[in-house]
Specification:
Shape: globular
Strand order of the largest sheet: 1-4-5-8-9-10-11
Strand content: 35-45%
Mean pLDDT: 81
Helix content: under 10%
Structural class: mainly beta
Order of helices and strands: HEEEEEEEEEEE
Number of strands: 11
Number of helices: 1
Largest sheet: 7 strands, antiparallel
C-alpha cells in the first residue's frame, strides 16, 4: 500500500501533463452512440476509426460480434467522404467457439456542412450514405440514408439534433419447418 501511495505522490509532483483527446467534439454515429455532429473532417484531413467492438447475445444463444471501421477524408472545404466496412463474426451454440466472419456491406457516404456554428446559429450539415450489399452477411439489397444534422454548443452543454430518412435492408430469417406428426 505504501508503494502505491509513494508512486501516486511522485507522479503528481514530477509527472508531465497528459495530452488530451483532440476530437472530443467530433462525434460519429456508432462511436459509441448513434448521435453524430454537424462537423466534417477538415480539408485534406484523414480520420481512421477502428470502431468499438459490439457484442450481442441473441435469443437462440448465438453471439454476434460487430465492428465498423471507417475512413473519412476531407475532399473539399466543409465536405468529407466516408467509407466504412461493417464486419460481423457469428458464434452459434454448439460450435465450440468457432464462428463465421464476413462483411455485412460496404458503406459509402458524404457529409457537407452548410455553415459553421455561430453565437446564435447552430452548425448545420447534410449527410448521405449508401450501404452496398457486399459480403456474406449483407442484406442482399442496397440501403440508403439521408440525414440533417444540427449541433449547438453553449457554456453548459453541447446539443445535437439528428434527423434521418432512409431505406433499410434486413436479411430474412430462415424458416424452420414444423415437426411432422
Amino acid at each position: 500500500m505504501r508503494i502505491i501511495t509513494a508512486g501516486i505522490l511522485l507522479t503528481s509532483m514530477f509527472g508531465a501533463p497528459a495530452a488530451a483527446q483532440v476530437h472530443y467534439y467530433n462525434l460519429d454515429a456508432g462511436r459509441p452512440t448513434r448521435v453524430e455532429d454537424a462537423v466534417p473532417v477538415e480539408r485534406y484531413g484523414v480520420d481512421l476509426h477502428v470502431a468499438a467492438l459490439r457484442l450481442e447475445r441473441l435469443d437462440d444463444g448465438t453471439y454476434r460480434w460487430r465492428s465498423e471501421p471507417k475512413l473519412s477524408f476531407g475532399v473539399l472545404p466543409m465536405t468529407s467522404l466516408e467509407l466504412r466496412a461493417p464486419v460481423t463474426h457469428l458464434v452459434r451454440p454448439g460450435t465450440r467457439g468457432r464462428g463465421t466472419t464476413a462483411l455485412a456491406g460496404i458503406g459509402i457516404g458524404a457529409l457537407r456542412a452548410l455553415n459553421v456554428e455561430k453565437a446564435r446559429l447552430p452548425a448545420l450539415a447534410l449527410a448521405g450514405e449508401a450501404l452496398v450489399p457486399v459480403g456474406g452477411f449483407s442484406s442482399g439489397r442496397t440501403s440508403y440514408a439521408i440525414q440533417l444534422l444540427a449541433t449547438k454548443t453553449t457554456a453548459i452543454v453541447r446539443t445535437h439534433l439528428n434527423a434521418s430518412l432512409g431505406t433499410y435492408g434486413v436479411r430474412a430469417p430462415r424458416s424452420i419447418a414444423a415437426p411432422g406428426p
